[in-house]
Design goal:
CATH topology of chain A: Rossmann fold
Pfam families (chain A): Ras
Largest sheet of chain B: 9 strands, antiparallel
Organism (chain A): Drosophila kikkawai (Fruit fly)
Largest sheet of chain A: 6 strands, mixed
Subcellular location (chain A): Late endosome membrane
Helix content of chain A: 25-40%
Protein name (chain A): Ras-related protein Rab7
GO molecular function (chain A): GTP binding; GTPase activity
Number of strands of chain A: 6
Number of helices of chain A: 6
Structural class of chain B: mainly alpha
Strand content of chain B: 5-15%
Shape of chain B: elongated
Largest interface: A-B, 76 and 109 residues
Number of strands of chain B: 13
Strand content of chain A: 15-25%
Number of helices of chain B: 55
Distance between the termini of chain A: 40 Å
Oligomer: heterodimer
Mean pLDDT of chain B: 66
Number of domains of chain A: 1
Distance between the termini of chain B: 72 Å
Structural class of chain A: alpha/beta
């Protein structure tokens, strides 16, 4: 039964308000950028079909409200997440600073089975802008300190790295699942030959 | 197999052809959709076709004693010699063992054997069975996915296909055909056998998925499609009342008085649900394949004189085949207008939905000579004729029949088979190339007479269906059918064997016994079984009726007690009479009548009109302040004017306070930005020593992600100085902006300029130095300046201009950004000027004059006093206030603590000086703000800025500088409620007010009123959970069916899909005009019907789409998605009307208790 795996991946996007969570999601799912997005209230999600390791899986990407006040809402949405995407705005140092609390809060609320190895991905968004304020090095260092979280610099507006980042997200989410399965799995099934000795009694046949 | 050679080869060819067809379809699906779903109907049909091929000519004896034609047994049989088959066989057993109740039909034999038989089989067999079940219970993780698999047909073929081993297995079978198959079977055929295995190479290479995707148009349709489908099915009702059935239904159970009114519509509910099923089923979906579809097929329903055209379709479900016919009038449903509403009801009655299982005979008629189409009449088991179906000319009847026959395969067929029918050449215009060859020798007999044909539908192996269904009722339903079949089968020993085998599946009889029974005995047994089962059914029904009655009564009691305990508080006890038919809400005339001499007295009437009819758009500006409680009823025009002035004054004063802080914050921000940019550029240029150190810090336990702290911590002495300067400058900024209102826009412009251009470190230093100097200048200037009193107005304006000039000058050192500065300044400029002017407007002056002695002190406490968040956060704007405040807090010490400098603990003395000057009692004006306050408000401003920019920017009103007004109103509110702070969503609440009033201070006052209720919905309050709980109870009371669905999907309990509705009073759900209309009804409802009208609105919104939600049995995520997609597309008036009627309903229930 090795091939029967869960094929819905739940991905949560977190990060300060206006770092581009909605834009990232829509750029990835719909290949569109709009400057008309409003602040997200509550939560929304999109689904997208992706192929990872030759498997087709559906990603359910949850876009959440950015203000930390609304985190209390999270528990309903974070439940059962397979991967968490932390987004910050490279032009807004505070949004980077807050990654810590987003991560911690997520781990508290979603309470994944193995918090140490829960897959996160960090995205530094808006790299298309000139007034960058958080250096790549700095972000990478932070990610390294947190158990080597993969880090990507994206631009939802220009579509830079978005596709690739989400591909990694899906991959990491699947890996988590695969690990979980290894833990759960039992030794190989015993080989059976149930029909081998079935008696054949042609005389009793009716026709 | 009693078939002629010709028949045999023909049959084989047909079998192969059907496999070909299915393979082609599957491959097409794979190509067009890039993937194939495991449960795709094309997979099912392919498996069916393969099963048919494999079971043809299968030697039963080869499989053992009591084997049916099951190919699963064959699989198990070859498992020991063929590794692929072994693998699949193992999988099949695992799945079956993990879910013994839902055994796959085609493999039912392996486990449904009676105990006796099991004993007779070898020990290893039973051991195997037990071990396999053990292993299945171990692999719990696998059981979830296999559960659904177990219920599927053709399980092993499916699995083999998913596992890509089907080809290998079939190859094995072909090469070993002699031991399992008859000589003339398909598999043993030298050509067909290899064709079959090679055909399946393609499908075996495919990747199958179980995922639900957007491309799965039948499982995950977009909200639009759901609504459209629903519209077709409910078109006979006007869309506004499409959720009525549940409500009427509910009323009916409670108010006997309304019985006769609702009984009529109750009937229509039944038909409506049938109708809905119809429309759903006309689409190809996961459960059914569309085999045939033809429009303009005429049917002559009962009681109708002329045949009606309609859409005929043939659907293949897993177990059954269905023929549907829908009148054209219904097909293009939603395009038509309501004029035909009455007729539509009738049309639904005409629609046909025929289960082919119930059909025994198919009569075909066609008039001789010309091709005028043909008529098909279906006759059921009961002998009742279905309405004749008349096909248009062009061979459509023939197509239909052949599709029907294909659909019946592999387990049923037309008798006599279509292709061996006498005179077929005449009747059916088959393509010659294909059909000629097949025609049997009977052909040559006279073929003139028969134009009418009768086909009997024969089902070969009904036991499959039987094994799949367990309920007694189903059992009874299918029994007469089987009896009839076996009794009428008189020819062919193979037929006979089939039937007797089908009987051996009876649970009541031992198959061993049955084996020896004669046909007569079988029939007797059948009858017996039938009568016992009918008795059982009767008693079950009796029990069910009694228990239902009891549970109904119990539910009713619970229901009423729930209402009493929970919901009576949601609505007013007094029911306000609805509007008369001729009333249209609050029109101009009405308003003039009510508003006598500018005094509005009759509040009840006013609210009633608004609640039931809304407000005429032009009146809103005038009326809304009343609705929001800003103006008091009975107030005179003068009083209101005065109130407005006071509000305006208060608003402007407050604004001046926060604008000062804003200026400081902006400046800080600017510096931060400059530093960060500088840091970034220097960091990238000079060696990476610093960053390495930063990393060490990070790693060394201090994981706090303080970007700037880190930078300043590790920066060199030069940086420290830099810090000091900034600190100093901030201090100055505080004092400078304490009194100048127009300072605000300038730093904003500066910020923009810094943002847009890259500033390198050196330049930045220069600039800051200059800043510093100028700041000191300003400081002096300010100290020289006395309290702002009317006579100093001009002087102030001048200073402001000077300052602006200076600030502009400051920007000049950055040549790269001077142009952008100029432009951004231009846009901000006018509004800044306006602000200055409005602040110093005549009213303001007159108010000042009136309360001259202690104007600030007098004005401040006037509105509901808002406690300042922190004791330390003392705002000093005027000397007079200084004194009052200082009495409370120890002056000297307090200031020392307040200083933001102390936190840094660097060079305190150097900074002490400017601070002390600005705070010294000698200075007449000045403000000192604690750093927390600055920080806090700065953060809020930052957030406000970000959200304001994104708020409704596509709405015309906010296309221009009106966004600044929005920003001002929110900032003022936040400044006054710093303990609450800005929360996302406030923008959305202010925006409609601002659009209506187009006046900042009035919008502000009304927003404050609005927030009195709304603030509780935000995360800091507890209203949201209460709303959710109330929603739950309301749904339980008013729509039990919906409640059941939600209950079954446990995660519904949170009702998070309503979150945005309640938080923003449906502002995001509706377009602006509808928001206005909805809001005023909500406000009026508080006084007329319910203080929780939003709940009923939410319920109405839910009820509007209840049928869609229910029929698609949406879960939590589906509902969220649906409503997010439906945002701004609701019919607000209909929803409002429904909400009002829901309120009324609850009121009635409570009254009747």
């Amino acid at each position: 039964m090795a091939s029967r795996k869960k094929s819905l991946l739940k991905v949560i996007i977190l990060g300060d308000s206006s770092v581009g969570k909605t834009s990232l999601m829509n750029q990835y799912v719909n290949k569109r950028f709009s400057n008309q997005y409003k602040a997200t209230i509550g939560a929304d999600f999109c689904t997208k079909e992706v192929v990872v390791n030759d498997r087709v899986v559906t990603m359910q990407i949850w876009d959440t409200a950015g203000q930390e006040r609304f985190q209390s809402l999270g528990v309903a949405f974070y439940r059962g997440a397979d991967c968490c995407v932390l987004v910050y705005d490279v032009t807004a140092p505070n949004s980077f600073k807050n990654l810590d609390s987003w991560r911690d809060e997520f781990l508290i609320q979603a309470s994944p089975r193995d918090p140490e190895h829960f897959p996160f991905v960090v995205l530094g968004n808006k790299v298309d802008l000139d007034n960058r304020q958080v250096s790549t090095r700095r972000a990478q260092q932070w990610c390294q300190s947190k158990n080597d979280i993969p880090y990507y610099e994206t631009s939802a507006k220009e579509g830079i790295n978005v596709e690739m980042a989400f591909q990694i997200i899906a991959k990491n989410a699947l890996e988590l699942e695969a690990e979980a399965e290894v833990i759960n799995d039992f030794p190989d099934q015993i080989t059976l030959g149930p029909q081998s000795n079935r008696p054949s009694n042609p005389d009793n046949c009716q026709c | 197999m009693v078939q002629t050679n010709a028949d045999g080869s023909d049959f084989k060819e047909r079998l192969i052809a059907s496999v070909k067809k299915e393979v082609k379809q599957l491959m097409e699906e794979a190509v067009t959709k890039k993937y194939v779903h495991e449960e795709s109907s094309s997979v099912t049909s392919l498996c069916g076709a393969v099963e048919a091929c494999l079971s043809q000519g299968l030697r039963r004896r080869a499989l053992g004693l009591f084997k049916t034609s099951s190919t699963t047994a064959l699989l198990h049989k070859i498992a020991k010699s063929c590794p692929e088959a072994e693998h699949i066989s193992k999988l099949v057993q695992e799945i079956e063992a993990s879910d013994p109740s839902k055994r796959s039909s085609s493999s039912s034999d392996s486990f449904q054997r009676p105990p006796m038989l099991k004993k007779s089989s070898s020990n290893s067999m039973s051991a195997a069975a037990s071990t396999s079940s053990a292993s299945a219970s171990i692999s719990v993780s696998a059981s979830n996915s296999s559960m659904s698999l177990a219920g599927m047909k053709y399980l092993w073929i499916r699995l083999a296909l998913y596992e890509k081993r089907l080809t290998k297995i079939i190859e094995y079978l072909v090469s070993n055909a002699s031991s399992f198959y008859d000589r003339d079977s398909l598999v043993a055929d030298p050509d067909y056998g290899s064709i079959l295995s090679s055909l399946l190479v393609g499908p075996c290479a495919l990747e199958f998925t179980r995922a639900k995707t957007a491309d799965h148009y039948w499982t995950d349709p977009h909200a639009d499609e759901l609504v459209q489908r629903h519209r077709i099915s409910s078109c006979r009702r006007s869309s506004s009342t499409c959720s009525r059935p549940a409500i009427i239904n509910f009323k009916r159970s409670l108010n006997t008085s309304s019985d006769e009114a609702s009984s009529g519509s109750f009937k229509s509910i039944a038909s409506a649900s049938v109708a809905k099923d119809y429309v759903e089923s006309l689409h190809q979906n996961a459960k059914a394949t569309l085999l045939y579809g033809k429009n303009n097929v005429q049917v002559l329903p009962k009681d109708v004189l002329e045949p009606m055209p309609g859409y005929l379709s043939l659907h293949q479900h897993i177990q059954t085949l269905t023929i549907k016919w829908t009148p054209n009038q219904l097909m293009n449903g939603y395009a038509e207008e309501e004029a035909e509403d009455i007729d539509k009801d009738a049309f639904w009655a005409y629609a046909l939905n025929i289960n082919v299982d119930e059909i025994v005979y198919v009569h075909c008629h066609q008039s001789r000579g010309e091709d005028s189409g043909g008529t098909v009449i279906l006759v059921g088991q009961d002998g009742v004729q279905r309405p004749p179906i008349h096909f248009p000319e062009g061979g459509h009847m023939q197509q239909f029949l052949s599709c029907l026959e294909t659909g019946l395969l592999p387990h049923g067929q037309l008798d006599p088979p279509l292709w061996s029918q006498r005179g077929i050449g005449k009747m059916f215009l088959w393509p010659r190339s294909m059909r000629r060859r097949i025609l049997p020798s009977v052909m040559e007999s006279v073929d003139e007479t028969p134009i009418d044909y009768v086909f009997r539908i024969v089902s070969k192996s009904r036991h499959e269906e039987f094994a799949a269904t367990h309920s007694i009722l189903d059992f009874v339903r299918s029994t007469p059918r089987r009896a009839q079949l076996s009794s009428c089968s008189t020819t062919g020993s193979s037929d006979c064997s089939n039937k007797s085998l089908s009987i051996d599946q009876f649970p009541l009889e031992s198959p061993l016994l049955l084996q020896q029974q004669t046909q007569h005995q079988q029939q007797q047994a059948l009858l017996q079984a039938q009568s016992t089962s009918i008795e059982m059914v009767c008693s079950t029904m009796r029990r069910q009726i009694i228990s239902r009655a009891f549970y109904g009564w119990l539910a009713y009691c619970r229901h009423l007690s729930t209402v009493r305990t929970h919901l009576s508080g949601l609505v007013h006890g007094r029911i306000t009479p609805e509007m008369k038919a001729d009333e249209e809400g609050l029109t101009k005339e009405r308003w003039q009548l009510l508003n006598v001499n500018g005094v509005l007295e009759n509040a009840t009437e006013f609210y009633r009109l608004v609640y039931f009819g809304g407000v005429q758009p032009e009146l809103r500006q005038e009326v809304w302040p009343y609705l929001l409680g800003h103006y008091a009823f009975g107030s005179t025009r003068e009083e209101r004017q005065k109130q407005d002035e006071t509000c305006k004054h208060y608003y402007e004063t407050t604004m001046s306070e926060w604008l000062a802080v804003d200026a400081i914050v902006q400046q800080r921000e600017k510096e931060k930005t400059a530093r960060a940019v500088a840091k970034l550029s220097s960091g990238s240029n000079s060696g990476n020593e610093r960053t390495v150190r930063a990393a060490d810090l990070d790693a060394g336990g201090e994981l706090e992600n303080e970007v700037f702290e880190d930078i300043s911590d590790i920066s060199d002495p030069g940086d420290l100085e830099f810090d000091e300067q900034q600190q100093q400058q901030q201090q100055e900024g505080v004092s400078v902006s304490g009194m100048h209102l127009s300072v605000k826009p300038i730093p904003r412009a500066m910020k923009t300029s810094t943002d847009s251009g890259h500033v390198d470190e050196g330049e930045n230093f220069n600039e800051l130095d200059e800043d510093d100097l100028q700041g000191e200048e300003k400081e002096k200037e300010k100290q020289a300046q006395p309290k702002p009193e009317p006579e100093q107005e001009q002087e102030r304006d001048e200073t402001e201009e000077e300052e602006e000039q200076k600030l502009e000058d400051q920007l000049n050192p950055e040549p790269s950004c001077s142009t952008s500065t100029a432009s951004s300044y231009e846009t901000v400029g006018p509004s800044a000027a306006n602000q200055t002017r409005s602040v110093l407007s005549p009213e303001y002056l007159s108010a000042d004059d009136l309360q001259l002695p202690e104007d600030e002190v007098a004005v401040k406490p006037q509105p509901p006093p808002q406690p300042q968040p922190q004791a330390a956060a003392v705002i000093i704007t005027k000397a007079s206030v200084d004194i009052t405040n200082w009495e409370r807090s120890p002056k000297a010490g307090g200031q020392g603590q307040m200083s933001p400098v102390e936190e840094q603990a660097i060079n305190l003395d150097a900074l002490q000086q400017p601070k002390s000057t600005c705070a010294s009692p000698a200075s007449s004006n000045g403000g000192v703000y604690s750093s927390e306050l600055l920080e806090q408000f700065g953060l809020n401003l930052h957030r406000i800025e970000k959200d304001v920019q994104r708020c409704d920017r596509n709405y015309w009103y906010f296309a221009n500088e009106n966004l600044d007004k929005l920003r001002n109103v929110i900032s003022t509110y936040v400044w006054e409620h710093l303990d609450v702070g800005y929360m996302q969503g406030m923008c959305d609440l202010v925006a409609p007010l601002l659009v209506i009033f187009d006046d900042e201070s009035l919008s502000y006052s009304c927003f404050c009123k609005l927030m009195e209720r709304m603030i509780e919905n935000f995360p800091s309050g507890g209203a949201m959970d209460m709303h959710f709980a109330n929603m739950r109870s309301l749904i339980q009371i008013l729509d039990s069916e919906m409640y059941d669905l939600m209950d079954s999907n446990g995660d519904y309990t949170h009702f998070y899909f309503c979150y945005r509705w309640f938080l923003l009073d449906f502002k995001r759900e509706l377009v602006y005009d509808d928001v206005f209309a909805t809001w005023e009804v909500i406000w009026a409802a508080k006084h007329i019907a319910s203080g929780h009208f939003v709940l009923f609105l939410a319920l109405a919104l839910l009820e509007t789409y209840r049928d869609i939600i229910l029929s698609n049995s949406m879960d939590f995520t589906d509902v969220i998605k649906f409503f997010n997609e439906m945002a701004e597309r609701h019919n607000a008036q209909a929803v409002l009307q429904l909400a009002r009627s829901l309120v009324l309903q609850l009121q009635m229930i409570i009254e009747n208790k």
